[in-house]
Every structure is written in C-alpha cells, then in structure tokens.
Specification:
The protein has 117 residues and is an alpha/beta fold. It has four helices and four strands, in the order βαβαβαβα. Helix 2 links the parallel strand 2 and strand 3. It is globular, with a radius of gyration of 15 Å. It starts with a strand and ends with a helix.
Amino acid sequence: MRVVDLFCGGGGFSCGAVQAGAELVLSVEWVPKLAAIYAANFPPGPTHEVRVEELGGSPSKMAREIRALLRSGPLHLHGSPPCTKLSVMLPVRGPNDVEVAVGLVDWFLDLVDRLRP
C-alpha cells in the first residue's frame, strides 16, 4: 500500500504504516519544526517527498496532486489535522484557536470530498 500522510507531525502514523509494510509517497506538515523531525525519522527519497506546506484554503491543488499520484495505483490518504485546540482539556485557548482547528478539519474533509474515494 502507498501512503499520503497530511499533517504528518513527527511521524506516528507513518511509523505504523511502514511497520505494516506500506510505502510512503508524500508527507506534508505545516509546522517547520515538526517537518524537520519527520524528515529525520523518514528521510525523503526517490519515491517519497517530504515537504513543509501550509495546508488550508482551497484544497484544489492538493486534490490535483493526489489524483496524479493515483495514476500509479491506489493510495491510502491519511490526514490528522491538529485538533488539540478543540480539546476540553486545554486550559487556555487563543482567540482564534477553535476557528483555525475547525478550518483545518473542514479543509481535509473538503479535500476528501473532491477526491471522491
């Protein structure tokens, strides 16, 4: 199985996927420090691109890119938009935390809808 991991963080999902025999093809993180940790854990290579990119806004570009990857066979699309700002366990929130978190979840769901899995 080939995997696209969006909001890949430090690589928890990717670690399990690789241990299960999956091949990473695209990993995108929007926080540069987390992307550096991810790239140290899962270095980019000829068939695996790791990049820092702000995810959000219109998912059209990402949908086109994933469709192009689908030409080489099926993919597992994994997305873990950061939702810690939505947790009731968070003692203090910034004024836009909930809006940003919900926006990223909406972006991912819109992307999936555009791909028509």
